[in-house]
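Attaching the record inline, Q. Sequence:
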Amino acid sequence: MKTIFSVFKRGLQKTTTSMSRSLASVFSGTAVWDDETFEDLEAMLISADFGVKAALNIVDDIRDRYSRGMIETSDDIFKVAAEDVCTILQRNIRPVNYQSGAPTIIMMIGVNGSGKTTTAGKLAARWVGDNRKVMLAACDTFRAAAVEQLTLWSERTGSSMISALHGADPASVAFDATKAAIARNMDVLLLDTAGRQHNNKGLMEELAKMRRSIVKACPGAPHEVWLTVDASLGSNAVNQAREFSRFADITGLILTKLDGTGKGGMAVALQQEFSLPVFFVGLGEQPDDLQPFDPGFYSSALFGVGK
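Structure, as predicted:
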């Protein structure tokens, strides 16, 4: 039987392998760990996209414990690093802001190719499996493939579906979908928005317009705005999050394609920079490879320790 931890472990295998090899090259044959050794460790963490701030904090902790005789082997380093990463990632964890007696309205935003539509479909599969009534709304009205893809997910999962003609105003689709979700007593409405580059001001302002339309249809909505981030993008993901947050009031993150990168430290860098909770992580192609984010599983799998 496939355990949840095994999904994390398999999905983060490339990062774990990359760091294990780098760590071996830094500490192999080193009798005494000096400043140069710790600088190499810091560079290794930064190269895995942990970000400078997190890398410095982790290395300072390891250096301190080493000076006090609490660390002797590279295995000890992985255990300490896993503890530190778990502490960082736990700071802003919270439950999804599910609504009682009304639809929970969630906007999915992100750049082209970040995996929004696939993630929306996998979320629908998860929630329908939990006996929730789910509606999918195709607010990407310019890419025909996006509507087709979401329609397939709707059919596969038994979710309701709202779409419009090619080229329709995305804000109008969002408004109509919100009204429909309320009228049909849905539990969750997932709004799949068009991919847009974070430096395209016009498209970014369109997100703000969509949000205003949703508020008109349902005061207080959207209840969540989740930015999907392709973890393989590295430090550019931080720039994306920074720009999107200017227009969309992001409430949380979903990290996708973690299984395809050796730089799984991105979750740590984003947490340090924005203090936003990570709600889900994509660790493979199958629907159950999209898992609720667990800091303990993530950090242990990342460094290949425990569990």
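The chain is about 50% helix and 15% strand. The longest strand covers residues 224-230.

More tomorrow.
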